[in-house]
C-alpha cells in the first residue's frame, strides 16, 4: 500500500480507503476483511451516522488499535425521521450527530468528519463555523464534504480562509469509468484547492467487475437487463485490458480511478473480494490502455470545459507565439 497526504494537512492516508457502509455486525467475515485491509497497510476506514449499525461495528473492530487508523464518518442524515431538526447541516444536528457518532465509535475524536451531502437550507457559513468549533474542541481533527457542487465547496473554503476557520481537506464524490461527471468542475476545483478526493462507486455498483457480462448473469445490486449498450461497451474495454494484463476487471477499474488521483473507497463483502480489490494498487496501466478505456466511455466535458480547451490552443485569442509559451 502506498500513501498520500490528506489535502494540505500533512496527515498520511492510504491510497485505498475501506468503506464500512454495509457492516451490519462484527461477524467473522467482517473481522477478516478489516484485518486483511490493516495487514495490507490500509489506514482509512469510512462510515457514516446513517449507515445503520456500521458505526457500532467499526467501533468494536477498532478496539485496541484506534489510533493507528484514520477514522472517518459523516453527518447530515436524519437521526429521527419525526423531527425536522434531526437532519441537515446546521449546528444543532452537527453537534448531536457528532456526539452520537463518538459514542457508537467508542472514541473521543473523529479524524475526518464529513458533511454527507450539501443541505440547501443551511447557509454554508453556519456549517463551516460549527465544524471549526468541533475542531477547536478537539472532537474532530479534519473536515471534508461529500456530494456537493463545486461552487459550494470553493466558496466554503474561501470563506474559511478569510475567517481563519478550518477548511475542508477532502471531497467525496461518485467516480468511475461509467460516471465521469466530476471531471467537469469538481476534480479541477479539488486540485486548485489542494483537496484530497475520495471516490465511491468506483465499480459502478459492480458493473465494472464484469459480473454481469456473462449471458444469464444473476441480478444483484443491478439487474443485467438495465445495463445499456454504452455501459456494456465500457465493460468490454475493461475486460479486454484486464485479459491483456493478466489481472481482474475490478482491478483495472480501481487502478484507473487511482491513476486519476483519487482514493477509491472499496466496500468489499468478503475477504476474497477485498484481496482482489487491494491488488489494484499493484496494477500499472499503460498509456495505450488508458486511452482505450477512456475512449470507450464516450465522455465529453461540455461547456465550458471543451470550449476553453479549444480557446487555450487558439492563436486568434492568445497570438501567434502561443506555442512558445510554457504554461501549466
Automatic annotation (TrEMBL):
<dbReference type="GO" id="GO:0016491">
    <property type="term" value="F:oxidoreductase activity"/>
</dbReference>
<feature type="domain" description="NADP-dependent oxidoreductase">
    <location>
        <begin position="16"/>
        <end position="296"/>
    </location>
</feature>
<dbReference type="InterPro" id="IPR036812">
    <property type="entry name" value="NAD(P)_OxRdtase_dom_sf"/>
</dbReference>
<dbReference type="InterPro" id="IPR023210">
    <property type="entry name" value="NADP_OxRdtase_dom"/>
</dbReference>
<dbReference type="Pfam" id="PF00248">
    <property type="entry name" value="Aldo_ket_red"/>
</dbReference>
<keyword id="KW-0560">Oxidoreductase</keyword>
<protein>
    <submittedName>
        <fullName>Predicted oxidoreductase</fullName>
    </submittedName>
</protein>
<dbReference type="GO" id="GO:0005829">
    <property type="term" value="C:cytosol"/>
</dbReference>
<dbReference type="InterPro" id="IPR050523">
    <property type="entry name" value="AKR_Detox_Biosynth"/>
</dbReference>
